[in-house]
Amino acid sequence: MTGLLALWPRRWPRERRSSATIALAAVVLLAIMWAMGRVLAFAPEPIGGAAEQFAEGSLVTLALTLVAGLLGVLFGLLAALCKMSRFPPLRWWADLYIWVVRGTPLLVQIFFVFFALPELVPGLQLSDFNSAAAALAVNVGAYNAEAIRAGIQAVPKGQDEAARSLGLSPLQTFVSVVAPQGFKIALPPLVNNVVALLKDTSLAYGIGVVELSNVGNRLQAATFLPVPILVTTALIYLVLTTVLTQISGAIEHRLDVEARH
Amino acid sequence: MSQVHPTPPPGQRLPLITADGVQKHFGPAHVLKDVTTRFYQSEVAVIVGASGSGKSTFLRALNRLEKHDGGRIVVDGIELCDDVKNLDAIRREVGMVFQQFNLFPHLSVLENVTLAPRKVRRTPAAQARAAGLELLARVGLQDHVHKHPHQLSGGQQQRVAIARSLAMQPKVMLFDEPTSALDPEMINEVLDVMKDLARSGMTMIVVTHEMRFAREVGDRILFFDQGRLLVEARPEAFFDDQRNDRIRAFLGQIVH
Question: I want to staple B71 with a disulfide (CB 3.0 to 4.6 A). Which of A177, B22, B28, B231 is the partner?
Answer without folding.
Answer: B22
